[in-house]
Write a structure and sequence with these properties.
The protein is mostly beta strands. The chain has three helices and 13 strands.
Length: 246
């Protein structure tokens, strides 16, 4: 990316938050990728964010609970569901760093449709499960969205080591300290939405992967080599509705 001042701190959103949620048993799986591989897949008004000379591709499975719009309460069985996303990291023209999602699969038909409508995010229906298994988290996701390219992840993961907060300027901070998401809104116009949460309670992690078929859907080869792994047990998050950029 070009040499610009990059802002990685939380932005100051306008007005009250719109959504509240809790994230559980989250695994960050990251691989370094040449920037030029991802550049054609990102809108021209965004720069691909890099660290150590590489862009980074992430697969992130986790479980959500208590998802609710302000000011409504959470509803059992509707507000709780697994989700998995395929992502990279970008910087806007004003230097604000954020996340670009290639896809997000969720086990909630309602959440998928609301996110596609109000956030312009590429959400897809999936058959998913996430449950504890002898100290591990057993996770499986198979996309079922009609007309969508296939995507699948199956495996188990667990934390290995003490909880820590990412040091500012570190690779861990680059990968996880993101407080904006960018997406293509209605009519293809670029929008972004702010989120707020405390610093990630990260732990080193390990994973046993049975199936990893998350990247061919966007024309990328499946990642090779060992991923960089981080685990987070629990995080409370609030999000704002998206605003058009520029």
């Amino acid at each position: 990316m070009s040499a610009r001042a990059v802002v990685r701190a939380p932005v100051v959103p306008r007005g009250p938050w719109a959504l509240s949620m809790r994230w559980h048993d989250l695994l960050f799986m990251h691989w370094p990728v040449p920037e030029e591989v991802l550049r054609p897949m990102i809108p021209g008004s965004l720069a691909v964010d890099t660290f150590g000379g590489s862009a980074w591709l992430g697969v992130v499975p986790f479980r959500m609970s208590g998802v609710r719009p302000r000011p409504l309460p959470a509803v059992e069985h509707i507000s709780d569901f697994p989700e998995i996303n395929l992502r990279t990291y970008v910087v806007g023209a004003d230097g604000e760093a954020g996340v670009w999602f290639f896809s997000l699969d969720a086990a909630s038909r309602l959440a998928v449709r609301l996110a596609r409508t109000f956030y312009g995010l590429p959400y897809f229906d999936a058959r998913m499960s996430c449950h504890p298994e002898g100290g591990w988290v057993r996770y499986e996701s198979v996309r079922t969205h009609r007309g969508a390219a296939p995507a699948r992840f199956a495996g188990r993961y667990r934390p290995r080591g003490s909880v820590f907060e990412a040091t500012p300027g570190s690779l861990e901070d680059f990968l996880t300290g993101r407080y904006l998401l960018y997406s293509a809104g209605r009519g293809g116009r670029l929008v972004r939405a702010a989120i707020r949460h405390r610093p990630w309670p990260l732990q080193p992690a390990e994973v046993d992967v049975d199936r990893l078929e998350m990247t061919s859907q966007v024309g990328l080869e499946e990642p090779s080599g060992e991923p960089l792994l981080h685990f987070a047990r629990y995080l409370e998050v609030v999000a704002w509705f998206p605003e058009e950029v520029g």
